[in-house]
Amino acid sequence: MISRFAPSTTGEAHPGTLLAGLLVWLDARARGGRAVLRLEDLDVTRTRAVWADQMIEACAWLGLAWDGVVVQSARRAAHEAALDVLAAHGRLYPCTCSRAARAGGRRAPDGSWAYDNVCRGRALPAGGWRASLDAIRVQLDDDRIELRDDGGLDLSQAPARELGDPVVRRRDGVIAYQLAVVVDDHDAGITDVIRGRDIAPSTATQVMLQRLLGLATPRYRHHFLLLEPGAGKLAKLHGSIPFSELRARHDGPGLCGVLAHAAGLASGAPCTPDELVAGFDWRRVPTRDRVARWTADGLVIDDAPA
Fold first, then answer.
1. pTM for this predicted structure
2. With respect to CATH, is domain 2-67+224-301 assigned 3.40.50.1000?
3. Is pLDDT of 305 > 60?
């Protein structure tokens, strides 16, 4: 059993990031498996090296020791090789459609604007996908994927119709998330993917890409999220409680205790990840999201599910 914690390095680590890392690590250790840290840094317009360094530091501070570290930007050759395979199968096409052009159209399961595959049938230029100045999409089969994750969450979807053919290389040359994650999981031998529920709508697309590339499909589990408080619709917790503030108010065992309590795994007293392994059980972990608040005493995660 090999799993991975794959945060994007587009900002400081925050409580939601560290909760995800803790759950990945505990699941692997409780099952006698391995867990690797993958720093997803492909988006050169948003990532910074200092945030990648801080992610490693934050994990160590919390008490998470990984069985390896993968830097996604160093894997360009593997991503391009996968694009070559898809091109050889006639699956790639250039797309001139912008995100703004889709606004106001049909909503996809992930809340974005769906793409209606309007550029399907366009041919790649003579030099192939590398010579294209447009974004590159992959034509998925129109089949429906029938799938449930290990927690019982229904992931079934016809991704080509419900979300649209995904971009696999952006207009600026950056390899897109959907392709990179599939290739990287396969090359690392990942057998189990543990991640936040916000990524669940992407799973069927990734499974379809695995099938097109002839790759095995790992087991999936999607856990609850930490949300920002607010009078309106709750938003996923992003950078509003950065690691620099967490570290100033908490020590590693203290924050581990807060996160473990929110996950139903401990009383809230300071603890280390190692101390949680023996009692780890997904049946104790809540399935509904929770609200994280920053107070004069530091991080508080509401007991009542959001």
1. 0.94
2. no
3. no
